[in-house]
Amino acid sequence: MLNGKIALITGGSRGIGKEIALKFAENGATVISGDLIDPDYSHENVSHVKLNVTDRENIKEIASEIKEKYGRLDILVNNAGITRDSLLQRMKEADWDLVIDINLKGVYNVMQGFVSLLLKSKASSVINMASVVGVDGNAGQTNYAATKGGVVAMSKTWAKEFGGRNVRANCVAPGFIQTPMTDVLSEDTIKGMLDATPLGRLGQVEDIANAVLFLASDESSFITGEVISVSGGLML
Q1: Residue 110 CB neighbours (<10 A)
Q2: Which alpha helices (DSSP H) does 85-221 contain, by range?
Q3: 0.85 exceeded by the pTM?
């Protein structure tokens, strides 16, 4: 499905990013996983690099290495992100700034740093990790919701800006996904998530990876500027 494709995934060492990296690798892509955290897995088709999405010089270095080795980039997945949740009255300015720097400006930094390599591909695909929160909002997540809404807006802009050069840009908006973060939540919180989700279950990281794989592949060659909700119906 991705045979011969060169892919870069930010935040590729754990969780959803790890699942995407492995899914791509299993489908024939050459994968570069960029993260500040050491990976807990290995695959013959996955290489790992230290990538800080807030460090523009670091991004330039990685872009230069990919250009020298491969000459192009076919797939970019902007997955790196954090949360620092708090009600608005209690939100610290430092937590606002950090989430903005990583989740929003980080996506801008990476796209700007690698777009010249994406343009060297015959047909490239950018997949940005958004969230249902970026579309519908959520109490206690002013900073996170703002970044994910901004990611959606940037993705639509890039779809228009680079469509004529055969670069597609789309978003995946996960709903409630089972991860180590949800494993520590209370039963009441989990019940509330399930009650709000028409399919009545938490999503799995593979559900997200499957959607990203589709958007990365030529199977979605006429899809750009879209937000694909992988939420079990949460956004209905």
Answers
A1: 26
A2: 93-99, 106-118, 133-136, 142-162, 180-183, 187-196, 205-216
A3: yes
Amino acid at 8: L
Nearest in space to 142 (alpha carbons), one of 104, 180, 178:
104
What are the distances in angstroms from CA 203 to CA 50, 105, 216?
29, 27, 20
CA dihedral 162, 163, 168, 170 (to 10 degrees): 90
Given the DSSP bridges, would you call strands 124-129 and 30-35 parallel, antiparallel or unpaired? unpaired
DSSP 8-state assignment for residue 164: G
Q: Which strands make up the sheet holding 227-230, listed edge to edge?
A: 46-50, 30-35, 6-10, 75-78, 124-129, 167-174, 227-230
List the structure tokens of 222: 């006429």
pLDDT tens digits for range 169-220: 999 999 999 987 678 778 888 898 899 999 999 999 999 999 999 999 999 9
Q: Which residues are catalytic?
A: 144
Pairing status of strand 46-50 against strand 30-35: parallel
In this structure, the number of other CB atoms found within 10 A of the CB of residue 170 comes to 26
